[in-house]
Protein 1
Amino acid sequence: MNDLPAFPKPSQLEGHEQLTPKQRRKLLVEFFYEQHGICACGCGRTMTLTTGDLASATIDHEKPQPMGHKKNDARSNLRAFRWDCNSKKGSRRDYKP
């Protein structure tokens, strides 16, 4: 018999994880310090933890899932990006700054 409840949480399906906004913010701060405030896209520019400017740090998927697939918020697939780099990257996997 299947161990999943009748209405499983999204994180219980297909091994994918989904984070709460509080968990995402905590990870953002951790990634920011692990990356020494440098954007993960490879541009070499610095980020800030303040909100509302183009240099703001955001957390996003390094390898995004195609449209229609569940997001995989596993720590190994997340990085901190500058807001402007993240918006330019979009959902492309082959982005080069």
Note: Residues 81 and 87 are 9 Å apart (CA to CA).
Protein 2
Amino acid sequence: MKYLLQKDKNRRQLFLKQEGKWLIFRSLLHNQGISLEFRKFLYEKFFFSVLVLAGSRYRIKNRCILTGRGGSISRKFRISRITFRELCNIGKIGGISRSSW
């Protein structure tokens, strides 16, 4: 699991590094004031040579920071539902109480 956490961390760093380039590239591609031929040229040359696809924001996966679990992650706490439940039961997360019926 440590490998997956490190891989996700590297992708996040790469995304932050390339975010400005992605924004410029997308704005140029969607600009209707630029000719279609120039936009096609930008797509063919710039996209595959400069930007690394591993740095795309769609490749970033939310993972639990404690266990590395990849599914059902709470955005606020960045932990999985299972870890969240365990920590709430032992009282490690303040302000959260179990509800009973």
Note: The chain has a mean pLDDT of 82.
Protein 3
Amino acid sequence: MRLEIDLRASRVVGAAVIVAAPSRKLKLSGLTNRQREVAASILAGRSNKAIAHELGIQLSTVKDHVHAILDRTGARSRAELISMSQG
């Protein structure tokens, strides 16, 4: 389970409203093979620059893959992606 701040309720109440949300599992099945490789590198904690060097691709290509991975998995950040992989 993860905690989230409900911004809409917080505005109404005038204080932070924290709600428990079920954990989401990371699903890589909708990704291309290259996106899975990039996702694995993200989960290993590598930077975009390190991923580009490791895979022999341009930094801009890595950024495109990262955006696609976040979009397809529903993660809002690299940290959330990592969190989803652990839960």
Note: Helices lie at 7-13, 33-43, 48-55, 59-73, 78-86.
